[in-house]
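Researcher: Can you fold this with iron/sulfur cluster in place?
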Amino acid sequence: MEIARLPAMKYLFGPVNSRRLGKSLGIDLLPFKTCSLDCIYCECGWTTTRTLERREWVPTDAVQAELDSVLASHPDIDYVTFSGSGEPTLHSGIGRVITHLKTHYPQHKVAVLTNATLLGDKAVQAELHAADLVVPSLDAATRKAFARVCRPVRGVHVEKLIDGIAEFRQSYPGLMLLEVFIAPGINDSEADLAALKAAAERIAPDAIQLNSLDRPAPEPGLVSVASSEQIEAIRAYLHPLQVQIVRKRAADEPAPWDSTAIFREILAVIDKGISEITRLAVATGIREGDLAKTLQRMAAQQLVIIDGSTGAVQRRY
Ligand code: SF4
């Protein structure tokens, strides 16, 4: 997929609007396409450099200079997100860039989308500690399905990868969404889903995000699209884990924030004891600004109470 770069920017792209993150400015720390996995659904295409080597793949100072040139003008951005054309934790300067962002631009949240292959590394864990949101992928918890979907470089083992996410979760103070891509017929057997559920229960993320193909895969015919019924059935199977379904919205489809379904989704999250709006936004996948407006409407309909001084949200019984 071609990534929209800002004019004259080498390492930044977007900002793009995403349901999960709102307005997000992307940072790409890797040369195309450097990753420890070679997922069959990767929107960037096949991995050309499959590696676990951590190093300064692009100059950290140059990335920070680009960030300064964009963020100094106080753009309307919700998140600065490490993603792009490879695995961002392969870059040994990611911790420095996160520290730079949190020191100089604390008004922007920082998200890291990672394939989790290095999350067991203590140095990586320390470097991601200050991020507001980490989204590790876990597409399978059995060796066979993991090998078929993610095609890892030698040295990556799914058991260790799960250990790494679980260990990171213990010390990481921010929000964690566990992203799961469903490839029908490849990682959705009963045994695969049982292993995935056990791993997710052990990790205990703030929520799971279920994803399926909604754009071209590197090779046509390799992955099929999961139907909404399949995805809903998997969501039900994973209960009581909190699960969000990542739906692609058509360009002309109105934002669904006012629907009663969204009200129910928000109330279900509040019932789990989450009352702070940032956490609610992440757990529901609704942009914070949209969520604030929806909560006002819910308050007007006597569904919730919003504390005027703290902003905490409670269900009204
Ligand atoms: S981990 Fe991400 S970047 Fe790497 S191959 Fe998989 S989808 Fe693509």
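Model: Folded with iron/sulfur cluster in place. The first helix runs from residue 60 to 71.
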